[in-house]
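PROTEIN DATA CARD
Card holder: MAT1 centre domain-containing protein
Chain length: 190
Origin: Opuntia streptacantha
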Amino acid sequence: MVVASGTNSFAKEMAIRKRIASLFNKREDDFPSLKEYNDYLEEVEEMTCNLIEGIDVAAIEAKIAKYEQENAEQITNARARKAEELAAALAASKGPAQPDTEMVTEQNPQAGQSATAQGHYAPAMTGGQLMQPRPMGMGPQPVPLGGPDMHLDDEEMMRLRAERGGRAGGWSPELSRKRALEEAFGSLWI
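Structure generated from the sequence above:
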């Protein structure tokens, strides 16, 4: 069992959830009915929550060990299926195969990795794990709607922008007045 420190409950919960998800990895198509699949998910979530909260840990650990022994082949098959899906997703993210003459590769100065054609995404790989794609190069930039002759720096426009920005964030002049009055009258009775 993975033991995480008691001071970081989030890390403890994530470690437990990751461990349980790696073992109890059945999918909906592994069950004959949706009700059986939902019952399975409910049981897994109940075990997970009880482990996180420290309720009946010994019995749950015994149940997990028994499940792992009985379903070792199914767990391995599910992990292999997930690896195949990740490999297929990686191949799909690279796009159709292109001749080397058409592929533009350049060295990205910030990431130090090869880049594909400008404006495309390339999958990031570290330690054999697929991470989120990262943007490569500058894509087409949006054109301002107002055109080049639009004057955004005059006082009226700056006042409107400040007023609208405050209202969009939930602020209003009445709130500040109300707070000032409450603080003033609240300090009188000390």
